[in-house]
């Protein structure tokens, strides 16, 4: 895939795709979660692959995914990490002023609003892209990617750390190339994938982790750590079939080959919940240049290919919280589908389609803390779309047996979004009794407390015959 307009952005994006090695050379390396989609809007396009699946209609399950915020920004989010249900961070890139810049967004209210904080990073060169983020708390996150080395005309690894108030640039090994992914289990233990190496963070410095099986040309595209003694990694495009590597607390070793497919396969993401359960997702290409999503399950020490719903062209990310719950996201890129974004749910037995809000072009990132809390990011050009599985804020009618009418007229009501802060305003009703309440980002617990208070107020009003 190439892009015809040689703008600075288009030229940079073209270089990103050169590392993909497939039979026909048309399938993209996922150097950055289908960055070419953004290029369509900034540099024109030519020679697109046809990404279509079988014509069979996939069964769609009514899904909890809903749009929480759309940000009008020429950006792509590649990774999300949520240390708590209130706090999440998202990283990627945005374009502007003839260059590419790192993008970082954060939410402090469970995804209701996202704010760009990318400009708070210092000492990162323009042209820097952040591929992955992993947070273990609200005061510790690691984000990794790459930045240009202008003097050598190459791109080198980049890492930044969050301490709860600021982002700081970190040094990485001098021979480090692009860093593709990161997984942390504490502030003193992270592993990060790169080309020909996996990097280890010990709380002080990044070093090359001990390994004997990864070749210098092998790109480790995704890493998932469960503990300091178990991590799993999958390669992207290698001289071998797609393989996995395992960390035993001391050394990275070759583990197993994935089931062979007819053509080259790109594995974008892996998520593990234990040393015996992991999911890895990506996509492959057929000899007819048809792109199809793929999923592999690690059970024990054996990888098996799974069936996924048809018409899934790409899977970019997966997040698992147990062996019976995972979310995977992607897209049907370059098709004429009205809603090419893809979301799949794993129930322990099979992957099933989920409905997405309309006009989601693709979904590149997902993070789940439980089966009831997942956040994702996609695109609806020219903006970013942040998605959530958190149910809409409940109404008074859904939590009470009646609408709590006040004697003498008026109804107690609650309106607005209800996550993130406390009760902010009250207006008195008849005879001074509370008539209505307005919430702004109030917590679920705060909402429940307020409902109980309203019920008490209403009962008192009724008893007094007001």
Q: How does this model look, in words?
A:
The chain is mainly β. It has four helices and 32 strands. The strands form eight sheets. It has a five-stranded mixed beta sheet with strand order 1-26-25-24-23, with no helix packed on it. The longest helix is centred in the C-terminal third of the chain and has 20 residues, at 444-463. The protein is globular and about 45 Å long. The termini are far apart.
Descriptive tags:
globular, Methylamine Dehydrogenase, Chain H, 32 strands, mainly beta, 5-stranded mixed sheet, 4-stranded antiparallel sheet, 4 helices, 466 residues, disordered N terminus
Report the biggest beta sheet as strand number plus sense, adding barrel if it closes.
5 strands, mixed
Uncertain residue ranges: 1-63, 394-445
The radius of gyration over CA amounts to 24 Å
Number of strands: 32
Shape: globular
Give the name of the CATH superfamily of the largest domain: YVTN repeat-like/Quinoprotein amine dehydrogenase
Q: Separation of termini?
A: 73 Å
């Amino acid at each position: 895939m190439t892009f015809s307009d040689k703008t600075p952005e288009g030229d940079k994006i073209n270089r990103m795709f050169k590392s993909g090695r497939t039979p026909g050379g048309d399938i993209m390396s996922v150097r950055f979660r289908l960055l070419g989609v953004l290029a369509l809007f900034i540099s024109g396009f030519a020679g697109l692959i046809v990404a279509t699946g079988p014509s069979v209609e996939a069964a769609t399950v009514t899904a909890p995914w809903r749009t929480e915020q759309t940000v009008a920004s020429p950006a792509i989010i590649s990774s999300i990490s949520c240390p708590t249900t209130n706090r999440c961070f998202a990283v990627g890139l945005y374009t502007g002023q003839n260059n590419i810049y790192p993008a970082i967004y954060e939410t402090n209210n469970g995804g209701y609003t996202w704010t760009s904080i990318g400009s708070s990073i210092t000492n990162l060169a323009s042209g820097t892209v952040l591929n992955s983020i992993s947070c273990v708390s609200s005061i510790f996150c690691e984000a990794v990617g790459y930045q240009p080395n202008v003097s050598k005309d190459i791109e080198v690894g980049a890492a930044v750390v969050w301490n709860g108030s600021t982002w700081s640039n970190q040094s990485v090994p001098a021979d480090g190339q692009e860093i593709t992914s990161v997984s942390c289990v504490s502030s003193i233990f992270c592993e990060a994938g790169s080309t020909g190496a996996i990097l280890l963070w010990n709380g002080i410095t990044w070093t090359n982790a001990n390994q004997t099986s990864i070749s210098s040309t092998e790109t480790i595209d995704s890493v998932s750590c469960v503990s300091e003694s178990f991590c799993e990694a999958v390669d992207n495009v290698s001289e071998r079939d797609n393989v996995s590597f395992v960390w035993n607390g001391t050394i990275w070793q070759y583990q197993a080959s994935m089931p062979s497919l007819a053509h080259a396969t790109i594995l974008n993401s892996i998520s593990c919940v234990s040393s015996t359960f992991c999911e890895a997702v990506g996509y492959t290409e057929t000899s007819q240049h048809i792109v199809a999503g793929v999923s592999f399950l690690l059970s024990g020490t054996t990888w098996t290919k799974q069936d996924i719903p048809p018409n899934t062209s790409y899977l970019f990310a997966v997040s698992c919280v147990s062996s019976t719950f995972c979310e995977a996201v992607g897209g049907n890129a370059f098709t004429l589908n009205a809603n090419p974004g893809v979301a799949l749910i794993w129930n322990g037995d099979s992957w099933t389609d989920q409905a997405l809000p309309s006009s989601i072009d693709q979904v590149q990132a997902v993070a789940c803390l439980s089966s009831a809390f997942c956040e994702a990011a996609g695109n609806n050009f020219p903006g970013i779309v942040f998605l959530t599985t958190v149910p809409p804020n409940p109404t008074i009618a859904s939590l009470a047996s009646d609408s709590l009418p006040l004697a003498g007229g008026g109804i107690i009501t609650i309106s607005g979004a209800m996550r993130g802060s406390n009760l902010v305003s009250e207006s008195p009703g008849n005879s001074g009794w509370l008539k209505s309440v307005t919430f702004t980002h109030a917590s679920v617990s705060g909402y429940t407390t307020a409902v109980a208070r309203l019920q008490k107020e209403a009962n008192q009003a009724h008893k007094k015959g007001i």
